[in-house]
Amino acid sequence: MHITEKRTTIILQILKDKQDLQFCGHYGEPGYNDPEKSILFANWNNISKTIGDYLESAGFSLEWYDEWIIDWENDKAYRQSPDSYGWIQQFRYTDDGELLTPDDSIDEWIDELSMSDYSHPPHALPDYFSEDDLMAAGFVRYNGNFESGFHPGQTDDPAKIARVIFDTVPCVEKVIFRIAESSQFYTVWQAYYLQTAADESQAAA
């Protein structure tokens, strides 16, 4: 297959005009290697296999547009549909429609996902944030791991755990959860809480 820069440019321009082709330079999603050139997103059902094969030979990666989102600010792509039983979503849209990704600070994630009382719906940080990250932000881990799933005994409920923390731990300001493991039949997660500065100073005394 004869590949030339001119031919490639013409093909990309036609696809961009007629098939809403989108480009991204890098994968943010774990487990993917960046292509020699860039990642192309389209509905490949509408594009001939010959063209697809040519583009791959020219150094592009081809992805389905409806399976990925693009963080335009950082030029990175993330899956929005699972590709394995252990897949964990790496991004989140805030209530204001802003995109949070691994390039954003843990403080921004905490502001979006933490609970200030147990009436708030529980959400969990992705597993790329570690316990050390949360401890550095002042959080304390509550007990061990919790499990929710289909196996016997995997009945832990984050909403109930949050209620227990707010009811029994003094001066809790925030509660947040973190995914530790995800699989086809269960999820392992952890709970953390942040106490007010006044309570921390009393504990130090």
Short description:
Helix content is 28%, strand content 28%.
Q: How would you sum up this structure, described in words?
A:
By secondary structure, this protein is an alpha/beta fold. The protein has two domains: 5-79, no CATH class; 93-204, no CATH class. It contains six helices and twelve strands. The strands form four sheets. Strands 9-11-12-10 form a four-stranded mixed beta sheet, with helices on both faces. The protein has a three-stranded mixed beta sheet with strand order 1-3-4, with helices on one face. Strands 2-6-5 form a three-stranded mixed beta sheet, with no helix packed on it. The longest helix has 15 residues, at 5-19. The radius of gyration is 22 Å and the shape is elongated.
Q: How many helices in DSSP terms?
A: 6
Number of strands: 12
* Radius of gyration, CA atoms, in whole angstroms: 22 Å
**Secondary structural class:** alpha/beta
User: How is the largest sheet built, in terms of strand order?
Assistant: 9-11-12-10
N to C succession of SSEs: HEEEHEEEEEHEHEHEEH
